Amino acid sequence: MKKALITGITGQDGSYLAELLLEKGYEVHGIKRRSSLFNTDRIDHLYQDQHESDVRFKLHFGDLSDSTNMIRIVQEVQPDEIYNLGAMSHVKVSFDAPEYTADADGVGTLRLLEAVRILGLTKKTKIYQASTSELYGLVQQVPQSETTPFYPRSPYAVAKLYGYWITVNYREAYGMYACNGILFNHESPRRGETFVTRKITRAAARIALGLQQQLFLGNLDAQRDWGHAKDYVEAMWRMLQQETPEDFVIATGVTTTVREFVRLAFAELGIELGFRGEGVEETGYVIACANPEFALLPGQILVAIDPAYYRPTEVELLIGDPTKAKTQLGWEPSYDLAALVQEMVQADLALFRRDAYLLEAGHAVLLHDE
Ligand code: NDP
Ligand code: GDR
Fold this sequence. Notes:
It comes from Hymenobacter jejuensis. This protein has about 375 residues and is of the alpha/beta class. It folds into two domains: about 5-185, Rossmann fold; about 195-225 and about 255-315 and about 335-360, UDP-galactose 4-epimerase, domain 1, CATH 3.90.25. Helices cover about 35% and strands about 20% of the residues. It has ten helices and 15 strands. The strands form four sheets. The chain has a seven-stranded parallel sheet with strand order 3-2-1-4-5-6-11, sandwiched between helices. A four-stranded mixed sheet has the order 8-15-14-13. The longest helix has 24 residues, at about 335-360. It binds NADPH dihydro-nicotinamide-adenine-dinucleotide phosphate and guanosine-5'-diphosphate-rhamnose. NADPH dihydro-nicotinamide-adenine-dinucleotide phosphate binds near residues 10, 13, 87, 186 and 192.
């Protein structure tokens, strides 16, 4: 039985990857951080009572900022594959916590690679590094491929650039099977609530149900190549099943503005939105609401700009070229943007219907707009 170790198992990708590897018969080990509240919502359905025999899902307390802890866990698990998904993954927050981001996302990758090297596992353990389309940053050329030059535009991206190159370096210096997946944005109903897609789908559902008045956003002109996390974790696994380790771009090849994502999310609920004004003055308003369940009136302003969400330096345009992954890995995304938006909006609608019922029955209080 193959053993996999996943850092960041409590995150969006970690949860889907753990599911995939368990389905494939792996023994799955995950590293979770100690937290004052439970932080395992996304993987609770995978939990197995550790007293049972044949337990194939195990969690270890740890942190990428602690090298002795990394060494101990790698030694204990002796993994065939490591997926390094753990990171401070929010681009905007990285401007507020740049040093921590460099430590966890940049040096954290080094700590893991060093653990494998020090323990003499360079020939046994394959490593996947969660690299990112944020490496491309300031647009040099589109679509972005494995040969496009990098120009990172945030402390997050600069830290990930170190993670990218230290992975390449360990591959070349020590002959390790280590590779970078340069993944473009991927989303799902499990996406963190402060990333723009989930923020939008949550708000669309909450506004429709009368739980929120307005949605405040930053740069609506940014363009992203959005795929589904389920498809992308399949690509991660495929990268570690090759003869030789190589780096791959994973993307859909289609790009969309944030504004269009907002329009599609509200349209999924039967709410037609229009936009007027420019820059900080731009608003999104109801043109028509086809769903009688939602008490929204034409002209009502649902979307407004809050410059607090602008970034000091922005990545304006991402569109990936996944040709290499398609040819060499046989990878194909199964979701298009319409299917992704539909799944996310419907999941949030179901989630917040429960809140609406509880509120109506007096069992909950209305939270302020997010
Ligand atoms: P999430 O933010 O959902 O998950 C991040 C995970 O990393 C969480 O489990 C988090 O733990 C953990 N983590 C954070 N800091 C540390 C630390 N110091 N030590 C150990 N674990 C830590 O991210 P995603 O699942 O979306 O992304 C997975 C990886 O892929 C990340 O590295 C991200 O940067 C990268 N990536 C993501 C893309 C995307 O579009 N989703 C695209 C390209 C790359 P906790 O739950 O305790 O916070
Ligand atoms: P990103 O994702 O920065 O691409 O990083 P995010 O969803 O945060 O932003 C996408 C774009 O939307 C614009 N935007 C807003 N973003 C947020 N979060 N909140 C807002 O209110 C808002 N308004 C507009 C942003 O300016 C940006 O242009 C994600 C993360 O998962 C990284 O870890 C990963 O490496 C990259 O995707 C690929």
